[in-house]
Amino acid sequence: LFWKSLYNRPTAILAPVFLLADPGFVFFVGRDFGPPAIALLCKMGGFLLLLRWWREGKQWYLYGAAFAWGIALYHKADFLWILVAVGIAGALFYRKGLFARLAWKHVLGASAVFTVSAAPFILMNLLTAGATFRLLAPRATFAEQTTAFIASVGVRTGQVVDMMTGTASYRLFMGEDPAGVSWFAFVPPILVLGGIAALLVFTTLPGGTVAGRKTWFHVTFTALIFLQTAKTPTSLMPHHLMALYPFLQGAGAAGIILLLERSRWKYRAGIVATAAVLAAAPGIAATQTIYSSLERTGGSGYWSNAVYELTDFLETEQRPVALMQWGFTSNLIVLSRG
Questions:
Q1: Residue 318 φ/ψ, nearest 5 degrees
Q2: Cα 120 versus chain centre, distance
Q3: How confident is the model over 54-104, as pLDDT tens digits?
Q4: Beta-carbon neighbour count of residue 287 at 10 Å?
Q5: How far apart are CA 151 and CA 215, in angstroms?
Q6: Bond into 189 cis (ω within 30)
Q7: Could you tell me which of 55, 66, 68 has the C-alpha nearest to residue 97?
Q8: With a cut of 70, which residues of the chain have pLDDT below it?
Q9: Angle formed by the axes of helices 80-93 and 59-75, to 10°?
Q10: Which of 27, 49, 78, 264 could be joined to 169 by an S-S link, Cβ 3.0–4.6 Å?
Q11: pLDDT of res. 112
Q12: Which residues touch 135 (CB under 8 Å, ≥6 apart)?
């Protein structure tokens, strides 16, 4: 629905194919590792409401988007990447429209709604003097930060590709890299990144699309999110890059559709169908490989059958136990008498 409203029906068909066949989406959102699922739902719900507000002018849509995004921030602090990117991209490409549509009472109303829904996050940081942001304080010289940022861009790029090929999910659940990654697995990221390149080219060329401004907003917004992930001076797991989803897939799909619309190729529907198959097949194959490996080996670490083996042992021995810790990224630690 969002991609149909923003671009067109063909993009709305192709973008979900890119997304649903992506092993990163299947495992990190479907299994809610991170967990990014609620933040993703609130993120896209907020964007859809914001798009309705922009087109229809009903302020309740704006307040609904503010509420959804407040929940998303409370749920995951890295939603700040989204908020910063929206603010900068909106100021760059829609400044006049925003001033024309927003009265101070609407700004204050949306801010109040956002504050209510994000209240736990805001209150915690007020009471702890900004505990969320302490790790973000620079502890190196500008030159060292620049070098680290450039290196981090490369690392994040590799993580995005690993998400799309299924390597990141396999590594997480199996504790090692897959034995071999076929060139076929790289077709989805090539299609997505190629589609984004086509989108930019056809928007920039003389006589480009009338939708140039929203396209540049979309791509700039996505790029800003990515750069913030690289700038954040903490160790990020691949699931943090779900902040880029589904904007990467949507931009790639829009670029492919635009390329076909601007070309004189025949059988465009067949080409779109072929692109969908080429995007879906490697992802489905990678997902099946991961499921088969989990079934065969039981997984590795805290994503494994070890917790069930521990349960069976404790039930068999009937020993008193004390649950010490089960953190989001920690093993289950149990003390027993021997």
A1: 50, 50
A2: 23
A3: 888 889 999 999 999 999 999 888 899 999 999 999 998 888 888 888 888
A4: 20
A5: 28
A6: no
A7: 55
A8: 1, 32-34, 138, 204-211, 234-235, 264-268, 301-303, 307, 310, 317-338
A9: 140
A10: 27
A11: 95
A12: 233, 234
The distance of Cα 194 from the centroid of its chain, to the nearest Å, equals 19
Distance CA 277, CA 273 (A): 6
What DSSP string describes 249-300? HHHHHHHHHHHHHHS--S-HHHHHHHHHHHHHHHHHHHHHHHHHHHHHH-EE
CB contact at 8 A, 162 and 238: yes
Q: Which amino acid is at 18?
A: F
Q: What pLDDT does 212 receive?
A: 74
What are 75-82's contacts with CB under 8 Å, separation 24+? 75/38, 75/39, 75/42, 76/34, 76/36, 76/39, 77/121, 77/132, 78/232, 78/240, 78/243, 79/39, 79/43, 79/243, 81/224, 81/225, 81/228, 81/229, 81/243, 82/43, 82/225, 82/243
Enter the tokens of residue 317.
């021995």
The length of the chain in residues reads: 338
Q: Round to whole Å and give the CA distance between 330 and 308.
A: 16
Distance, in Å, from the CA atom of 177 to the CA atom of 181, rounded to the nearest integer, reads 9
Residue from 33, 3, 27, 53 nearest 287 by CA:
27
The C-alpha atoms of residue 245 and residue 119 are separated, in whole angstroms, by 26
The letter for the amino acid at 93 is F
Helix (H) and strand (E) counts in the chain: 16, 4
Would you state the structure tokens that stand for residue 106, as one six-digit string?
A: 């609407």
